[in-house]
């Protein structure tokens, strides 16, 4: 796809300074710009590159004043960074605006699909599946029986959605995601052998949820594993059976959440955080990366460490920990001095 400077300025409500017919078909960093590419300047420390960039078009803020000659066509906007982000979103919408049903696919006769959907090749749509309008199902996606997908859902290639799962509107499910696999439920018998506990619940994902590549969300033993509205999950997260994650919580990659733990609303959770099972985590909690959570957490706490404790206390304690060898040297010297006396 090619866009002219005039077209881009129209999308961004900006002004062209230079050749309105300049065309671009790719994006680039300002220091790596080549002919036919579009870039932007928002951070002042990159200003020097605007005089050397080979990018055909550069988005800048309206107050930018060039100190030297430039060859790139400028599009002047109120906020260069915000406008570039807006353009990326527009580009993605255009790029992914696929419709129709490719072949081969399998669609159960009992499935129902809304208008404007895209269904990629080699996808499988099971019994009684309901897919809302304008959904995008990319190739090699498996959707099991009795699954419901809302409007404007995007499911990228290779994702697997097991039976009974409910997914709301405007959700994004990235490649390799598995939703609704059995929870890790086993019980020992009198011989010390472990037998499987049937996992008969489902997964419910509410509106506006993003799920990163390779993340797994297990179905409940009974009832539902629930991901509330606006939750954002990074890549490679493990969410166990009967977990509930509150609205607008954001979780970074490689975090693991054990069964039946409840996480509140508006929490920010760093990467590689481990949660024990059956915990209650309050609202507005902040947890630093690589923390281990083994107790209930009150609203508004900020934690770090393993096991995690108050962030401020951890930071103070860590200073002493780093200085422990020197502290021990001083302690030993004082002890020796006292003995000599």
Low-confidence stretches: none
CATH architectural arrangement of the largest domain: 3 Solenoid
Shape designation: flat
Count helical runs.
Answer: 4
The CATH C-level name of the largest domain is Mainly Beta
Could you give the topology of this structure?
Layout: E1 3-4, H1 5-12, E2 15-17, E3 23-24, E4 26-27, E5 37-40, E6 57-61, E7 73-77, H2 80-95, E8 100-101, E9 106-107, E10 112-113, E11 118-119, E12 124-125, E13 130-131, E14 136-137, E15 142-143, E16 148-149, E17 154-155, E18 160-161, E19 166-167, E20 172-173, E21 178-181, E22 186-188, E23 194-196, E24 202-205, E25 210-211, E26 216-218, E27 224-227, E28 232-233, E29 238-239, E30 244-245, E31 250-251, E32 256-257, E33 262-263, E34 268-269, E35 274-275, E36 280-281, E37 286-287, E38 292-293, E39 302-305, E40 308-310, H3 311-322, H4 324-340
Parallel strand pairs: 4-5, 5-6, 6-7, 8-11, 9-12, 10-13, 11-14, 12-15, 13-16, 14-17, 15-18, 16-19, 17-20, 18-21, 19-24, 20-25, 21-26, 24-27, 25-28, 26-29, 27-30, 28-31, 29-32, 30-33, 31-34, 32-35, 33-36, 34-37, 35-38, 37-39
Antiparallel strand pairs: 1-3, 2-7, 22-23, 39-40
């Amino acid at each position: 796809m090619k866009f002219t400077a005039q077209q881009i300025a129209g999308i961004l409500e900006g002004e062209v300074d230079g050749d309105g017919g300049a065309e671009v078909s790719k994006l680039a960093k300002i220091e790596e710009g080549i002919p036919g590419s579009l870039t932007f300047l928002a951070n002042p420390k990159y200003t020097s590159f605007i005089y050397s960039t080979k990018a055909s078009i550069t988005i800048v803020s309206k107050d930018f004043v060039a100190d030297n000659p430039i060859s790139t066509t400028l599009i002047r906007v109120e906020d260069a960074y915000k406008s570039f982000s807006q353009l990326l979103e527009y580009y993605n919408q255009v790029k992914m605006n696929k419709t129709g049903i490719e072949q081969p696919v399998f669609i159960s006769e009992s499935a129902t699909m809304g208008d404007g959907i895209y269904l990629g090749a080699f996808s499988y749509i099971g019994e009684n599946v309901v897919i809302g309008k304008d959904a995008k199902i990319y190739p090699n996606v498996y959707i099991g029986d009795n699954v419901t997908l809302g409007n404007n859902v995007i499911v990228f290639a290779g994702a697997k959605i097991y039976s009974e799962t409910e997914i709301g509107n405007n959700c994004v499910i990235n490649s390799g995601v598995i939703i609704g696999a059995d929870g890790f439920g086993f019980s020992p018998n009198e011989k010390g052998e472990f037998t499987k506990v049937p996992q008969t619940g489902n997964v419910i994902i509410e509106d506006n949820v993003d799920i990163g590549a390779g993340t797994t969300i297990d179905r409940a033993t009974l009832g539902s594993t629930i991901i509330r509205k606006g939750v954002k999950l990074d890549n490679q997260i493990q969410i166990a059976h009967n977990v509930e994650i509150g609205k607008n919580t954001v979780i970074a990659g490689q975090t693991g959440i054990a069964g039946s733990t409840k996480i509140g609303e508006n929490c920010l959770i760093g990467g590689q955080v481990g949660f024990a099972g059956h915990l209650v985590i309050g609202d507005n909690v902040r947890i630093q990366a690589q923390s281990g959570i083994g107790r209930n957490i009150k609203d508004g706490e900020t934690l770090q460490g393993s096991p995690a404790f108050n962030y401020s206390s951890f930071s103070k304690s860590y200073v002493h920990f780093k200085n422990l060898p020197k502290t021990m040297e001083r302690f030993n010297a004082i002890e020796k001095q006292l003995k000599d006396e």
